[in-house]
Amino acid sequence: MPFVELETSLPAERLPSGLPMKLCEATATILGKPAERVNVTVRSGMPMVLAGSAEPCAQLLVSSIGVVGSAQQNQGHSARFFDFLTAELGLGPERIVIRFFPLEPWQIGKNGTVMTFL
Fold first, then answer.
1. pTM of the model
2. Is 12 helix (H, G, I), strand (E, B) or coil?
3. Which is a GO BP term held by this UniProt record (predicted)?
4. What pLDDT sits at residue 8?
5. Would you tell me how many other CB atoms lie within 10 Å of the CB of residue 15?
6. pLDDT (tens digit, 0 to 9) for every residue of the chain, 118 residues total?
7. Is the four-CA dihedral 89, 93, 97, 101 of positive or negative sign?
8. In angstroms, rounded to a whole number, what is the distance separating the alpha carbons of residues 67 and 76?
9. What pLDDT, on the 0 to 100 scale, is given for residue 109?
10. DSSP class of residue 23?
């Protein structure tokens, strides 16, 4: 059950139409998870500074069980997420940062329990 949060200083009107669904589909493909399990949040117009500059930028947080737990996994994921984000947001790769967070099943609640028991 991946959780993806995109925060950007770009205003909402500069984001492509349907970005949350496109990011959901891209995440499902990149992480090899069903789109029905992907959760996406997009926050635009955020006051942000990246690498000491307030120029337009974005930060992607990717959390999931079992697929973001190693440098080797994340190197491949990173390349594919960067391809998606640079194309969709029109930002250079130097204005984007990605953070990966591995999760354990007991850290995600759903349907009144945790994923460990589902």
1. 0.95
2. helix
3. melanin biosynthetic process
4. 98
5. 18
6. 999 999 999 999 999 999 999 999 999 999 999 999 999 999 999 999 999 999 999 999 999 999 999 999 999 999 999 999 999 999 999 999 999 999 999 999 999 999 999 9
7. positive
8. 11
9. 95
10. H
Residues 6+ apart with CB under 8 A from 3: 39, 41, 61, 62, 63, 64, 103
The one-letter code for the residue type at 81 is: F
Chain centroid to CA 60: how far? 4
Q: How far apart are CA 45 and CA 8, in angstroms?
A: 6
Residue-range domains of the chain with CATH = 2-117 (3.30.429.10)
CA distances from 36 to 19, 25, 66, 82, 97 (A): 16, 9, 17, 22, 26
Looking at residue 36, its amino acid is: E
Question: What are the DSSP calls for 68-106, one per residue?
Answer: SSSHHHHHHHHHHHHHHHHHHH---GGGEEEEEEEE-GG
Instruction: Specify the residue for token string 């499902």.
Output: 28
The pairing of strands 96-103 and 58-65 is parallel
